[in-house]
Amino acid sequence: MVKDGDWNCRKRIYFYDSTLRDGAQGEGISFTLKDKLSLTRKLDEFGIDYIEAGNPGSNPKDMEYFEKVRKIRLTNSRLVAFGSTRRANTEVYQDNNVLSLLKAETSAIAIFGKSWDFQVENIIRTNLDENLKMISDTIGFMKSKGKEVIFDAEHFFDGYKSNPEYAFCTLKAAERAGADWLILCDTNGGCFPDEINTIVGKVSEIFKAPLGIHSHNDCGMAVANSIMAVKSGASQVQGTINGYGERCGNANLCTIIPNLQLKQKYHLIADCKMAGITKLSRFVSETANKGHNEYEPYVGNNAFAHKGGMHIDAVLKDPISFEHIPPELVGNERRLLMSEVSGRSTILTRIRKFAPELSKESSKVKEIIERLKKLENEGYQFEGAESSFDLMVKRSLGKENEFFKVLDFKVWTDSKRNLLNSTGAVIKVDVNGIEEITTAEGNGPVNAIDKALRRALELFYPQLKVVRLSDYKVRVLDTTQATAAKVRVHIESTDGELVWGTVGVSSNIIEASCFALVDSIEYFLGEWEKKEAKIYGNDYDSENTGCTCRVGQSAPGSDDTGQP
Ligand SMILES: [Zn+2]
Fold first, then answer.
1. Strand (E) positions, 55-101?
2. Ligand 1 center to residue 249 CA distance, Å?
3. How far is the CA of 364 from the centre of ligand 1 (A)?
């Protein structure tokens, strides 16, 4: 068994992504063929070792994928077709599912087989000997075809707890037949890290073939179990991006990869690739059409967000006071949340992004703080809507680049028609002196005005096509005013990579929404312009020069100063 001390040795750990197969079994996830192809490209670009792409025998869509994917040149990843051992009492070369795995033409094949006597006798209802033959026949057949074979020992840990001798026999059958990998699966996700440590340790003492771990998250332990398995001898980790998967999901590779490489000093990918993980995680959320989990370690929007005034103050003095790693390492960024509990130093830091020369005493800073107080009194809240705050600062400093002006808009609702597209909006905008009027229909007034505004602006700024709303929240501020009450609209927008929040307040919900939408588009265009300027070398961006944050050193275990 692995002991403390010989754990961190830059040992190479291979990682195996099953987002396209196990991940696609998560509720509400359905990847189109096009989605699967673009996910494959992104996973390869990031540097995933193995991409488990589907089960060609069970799904015609997967077969079509394997035909199309051959045209993509992968530079880092090896594609894997996934399927089961032959059925009981058949010849392996006559089993259609097994044969369809060959049609996928991948160099690696994952074969799953039963390791738990209960499953053999009660679920697939065959005898224990026949199950061993099913494993060895199928693996032997794939080896005879020159494939790299990954044996997934399904329910291995439950099998070991029920009948350890038999569970070992299944691994032996696979190893003898030539399996290149033995993957120990916690298929029901019921194990604890100490059990994983003991069992993986025992397996690694007996077997020569390299081991892997495949954990599900039913006890919330999938990440911990995967890491424990690596410490106990496994050199392959299977999981999915964002932990997507059936029931409570699979082991989350976006947590495991930085944990193993940045915190435990194993080697998984080129160090320079690590900063791509936040982008990859967001890309997968977008493609899966799932709201990104902003609390996700390393890659969530909140992973490095600070709110408490004292915490922010400490982070500004030295980020290691409340950050376990520098966010840049994983391509994420530090966020200082604007709220009534954040102090003056937070506000000053944000102002100095745009005007580094200003000090606490500057009259401009005082003016902005007064303006902030006034807006907060009116019902504005900038927490989660920092982009609106940044725009307010830029406007106060006269540094705003006005991309467009909304001159007028009207919204109407036709009560006689059914609800879908029963609302229309017309909007008049001015872009550099050119006026444009557009109309749009929507399934509600906000949707209609959003569409009309984009339609008008996309004529001038086609880059807006990728922007969409990812969240929309309305809060009534003074409930005593009933329907005349003021509302605060908070929207979150994304272009598939970045996420930003904006806010609008008015007693008219359409107007409040319009304020938030205008801020969202203006913020995006400002960021886009900055990016273009960087690409074309005209980098006039002064935003980062004023930040007082410095990049801290990773200091595992030193992230707590005793405050809650
Ligand atoms: Zn699984």
1. 78-84
2. 9
3. 58
Nearest Cα to Cα of residue 222 among 301, 157, 150, 303? 157
Cα(542)–Cα(534) distance, integer angstroms: 12
pLDDT, tens digit, for every residue of 359-400? 888 898 888 888 888 888 888 888 778 899 999 999 999 888
Average pLDDT over residues 254-281: 94
Residue type at 189? G
Distance separating the N- and C-terminal Cα atoms of the chain: 37
Residue-wise pLDDT tens digits, 223-247: 999 999 999 999 999 999 999 999 9
How far is ligand 1, taken at its centre, from the CA of residue 21, in Å?
9
Looking only at the bridges linking them, the beta strands covering 434-442 and 468-476 are unpaired
Ligand 1 centre from 377 Cα, in Å? 52
Local structure of 181: helix, strand or coil: strand
Inter-helix orientation angle 96-103/128-144, to 10°: 30
Separation of CA 239 and ligand 1 centre (Å): 8
Q: How far is the CA of 153 from the centre of ligand 1 (A)?
A: 11
* Least confident window among 395-404, 442-451, 552-561: 552-561
Neighbours of 517 (CB within 10 A): 23
Which residues are close to ligand 1, an ion, with C-beta < 5 A?
Answer: 22
**Of 493, 488, 490, residue with least CA distance to 520:** 493
134 has pLDDT over 50: yes
From the CA of 522, how far away is ligand 1's center (Å)? 44
Q: What is the whole-number distance in angstroms between the Cα of residue 152 and the centre of ligand 1?
A: 9
DSSP state of 262: I
Answer whether 184's CB lies under 8 Å from 198's CB. no
Residue 543 Cα to ligand 1 midpoint, Å, equals 45
- 128-144 and 164-176 helices, crossing angle to 10°: 20
CB 213 within 8 A of CB 183: yes
Between CA 118 and CA 521 the distance in angstroms is 58
Torsion angle, alpha carbons of 265, 320, 527, 283, to 10: 40
Q: Which helix (H) or strand (E) holds 429?
A: strand 423-431
| Residue 293, phi-psi category: left (phi > 0), alpha (psi -120 to 50), beta (remainder) | beta
Mean residue pLDDT across the chain: 88
Strands 405-413 and 236-239: unpaired
Q: In one letter, which amino acid is 41?
A: R
Residue-wise pLDDT tens digits, 70-126: 999 999 999 999 999 999 999 999 999 999 999 999 999 999 999 999 999 999 899
Torsion angle (degrees, nearest 10) of CA 51, 57, 63, 65: -30
CA of 17 to the centre of ligand 1 (A): 11
CA nearest 265: which of 12, 552, 76? 12
How far, in Å, is the centroid of ligand 1 from the Cα of 212? Answer: 13
- CA 317 / ligand 1 centre spacing (Å): 44
3-class SS of residue 108:
strand
Instruction: Spell out where 301-402 has E strands.
Output: 305-306, 335-336
Under a CB-based contact definition with an 8 Å cutoff, are residues 253 and 43 in contact?
Answer: no
Residue 514 · residue 407 · CB < 8 Å: no
Cα 112 to middle of ligand 1, angstroms:
10
Residue 1: predicted pLDDT: 36
